[in-house]
Amino acid sequence: MPYPEADRSCDTPCRSVARGLVRKARNGCTTIKWGCSRAQAGPGKEGVLNRFARLAARLLAAPQGLVWLVPSGAGESAGAAPECWPAEAPVAPDVLECCRRVAELGRPLFLGHAGSEPGFAFAGVPLAGSSGELLGLLAVVDHEARSWNADEVRDLSDLAAACSAQIRMRERTESVRRSQVAAQEAAEAAEGAAARMHTLLDRSQLLLRAAEDLADTSGLDDVRRRVSDLVSGDLEPSYIGLVLLSRGALHRIADPIGSAQPFETVPESYALDSNWPSARAVRENRVVVVDDRSEITSGYGPEAVAGFDSLGLRTAVCLPLRGTRGVLGTLVLGWADPYAIDTAARAVLTTLAGYTAQAVERALHLDDRVGVARQLQEAMLTDLPSVPGLELAALYRPAARDDMVGGDWYDAYPLPGADGTGDMGALAVTVGDITGHDTRAASLMGQVRSMLRQADHDHPGEGPEKALSALELSCRRLDLPASGTVLHVHLRPAPGGRWHMKWSNAGHMPPLLATPDGAVDHLAPHDLLLHPALPCGPRTCDSRVLDPGSTLLLYTDGLVEQRGRDIEENIDRLVRRLATATSQELPLETLLRSLLDTVGTTEPEDDTVLLALRIPAV
Q: Please, what is the Cα angle at 399 between 395 and 403, to 5 degrees?
């Protein structure tokens, strides 16, 4: 018999459902079968779609209700296999066949039972999605003969509309949840990628700074300091060590001033074959990583364990410093917390060690050259002669940086007489400064010093200007590129305990003369400095008689030339201090130290020479 289709135009499904529930309650229907759905209810808990199956069975007074959903991805395919889970009793195959038929037709299906096939009454209404696609169907089954009236058709259709809305809402909720999860995963992935990019950028900047900063280091101490500055801000190790190989032993380079590292159990040097991770890194020419204390306990000696503990380390890496002629030593980095040395970190650390090795190799070469220059420079600072009627004192202070060697020098030696023999106590005194701060300047200074001595002996009885002219001429003829300033003084004893002074100044700082009356005179006249590009003209000479009680001070510009201060002001300070110290009759050595401490700086950028002579009071 024909059955009316469900009224799909009803917009008040909840009101229809309530009306049906009241009507069925009056009819005394109590037999309810649970239907099936894709989401089963757990123990003691009823699923959302199971409730629609239960409501459908109660509304239509049927023993079984079910919600049959089209499998995911099946769309409206009538041949799709159903996914159905009955709560208490299985769904008969014929019932499932009716469900498939509704799916194929895409419209409601109402079958009555009159003793013929299929042998049960079936009422099913499609569940439609937001775009009209088939989601499944809501159905009831009755094994007794019955027919479906218009109210039942409408009630089932209204309930199916509510069920469709619930499914759509659940799908939207699930879609939103998936979108949120995807967004969260994307955000976390983006954050992780940003963190990785930030780390890579930091490491790239670290290596760029390392290439720049370590390219112009001037000594081992400078290398040690710059490596510490580089890695402290990026890698943040708690310990940084530089150990160098020399004569079969490893020697730890002193840590920067102000370092708080404890070294009670870390030796200054140890043998190459000792059981330390840093020694192994040099012997095997490979990166050695210590991940935790158990590793150093099991793999190294007790001294290494004690050193590891005294530094409070959890992770350490020893990087061999590979030079052009072999391994130079080890760069050691340690962390107080566990630190992952992955492939990327290992590559960065290895590159950093390469830059450090290049800087160390340059520093060792430079230190060798500087050592030779220092020895040469110190050899030029000869002992002052003992001269009756004169007191002599000299003071030399090198620049603050160990790699700074220069051409500052002082000299004092007896003058020959006109016949080439001694000149009855005559004395030559010199203070000079050859331009430059390297081994070349130091070697030129040594040659100039010797040539000036020879010039005095080649021109006995002549004045200091003759010796300077001869020196300048010799430099031209020998093509010696010496440039700088020189103050050359000849002193000869005079009656009454006086001394006769002649001097020639080639662009040098003016000497200062403290007279017995407490005044300080600038002996200002001077000629051009020595330079290969300047004309080689005759030098001039000035003279002065020095009375007993006089003090003569010669010095180089390192005493008064200071960054950010006016040189004339410093010279005025020097004059005042010289006058005060002279009036106090301080010993010459004490006077020179006082002048240096008062006028000079604690971190001089240039070498400084002071030479003083005093004529004792009668």
A: 130
Measured CA distances, 299 to 270, 277, 284, 320, 332 (Å) = 18, 9, 15, 19, 17
CB atoms within 10 A of CB 166: 16
Q: How many CB atoms lie within 10 A of CB 15?
A: 11
Neighbouring C-beta atoms of residue 327, cutoff 10 Å: 19
Phi, psi of 88 (to 5 degrees): -125, -35
CA max distance for the chain:
161
Residue type, 193: A
Q: How far, in Å, CA of 383 to CA of 129, rounded?
A: 109
Q: How many beta carbons lie within 10 A of that of residue 315, not counting itself? A: 21
Radius of gyration of the chain (CA): 51
Positions of the chain with pLDDT under 50: 1-46, 73-85, 257-258, 260, 262-264
Within 10 angstroms of residue 604's Cβ, the number of other Cβ atoms is 19
Distance CA 287, CA 320 (A): 6
Whole-number pLDDT of residue 308:
86
Q: DSSP secondary structure string, 424-445?
A: EEEEEEEEEEES-SSHHHHHHH
**Where does residue 587 fall: left (phi above 0), alpha (psi -120 to 50 degrees), or beta otherwise?**
beta
Question: Cα–Cα distance between 241 and 384 in angstroms, integer?
Answer: 45
Give the distance from CA 233 to its chain's centroid. Answer: 4
71 vs 165: CA distance, rounded Å: 18
Q: How far apart are CA 324 and CA 358, in angstroms?
A: 8
The alpha carbon of residue 347 and the mean position of all alpha carbons in its chain are separated, in whole angstroms, by: 15
Q: How many residues does the chain have?
A: 618
Q: How far apart are CA 103 and CA 125, in angstroms?
A: 9
What's the pLDDT score for residue 183?
85
pLDDT at 215: 74
Cβ–Cβ < 8 Å for 544, 513? yes
Cα–Cα dist 106/101, whole Å: 8
Q: Tell whether pTM > 0.85.
A: no
pLDDT of amino acid 494? 94
| 82/35 Cα distance (integer angstroms) | 13
SS3 391: strand
Residue position matching structure tokens 């006995």: 460
Q: 179: which 2 tokens?
A: 């979108």
The per-residue pLDDT for 115 is 53
Would you call 395 helix, strand, or coil by DSSP?
Answer: strand
Please name every residue paired with 68 in a beta bridge, in sequence order, or none if there are none.
Answer: 137
| Cα–Cα distance for residue pair 513/524, rounded to 1 Å | 11
CA 332 to chain centre: 15
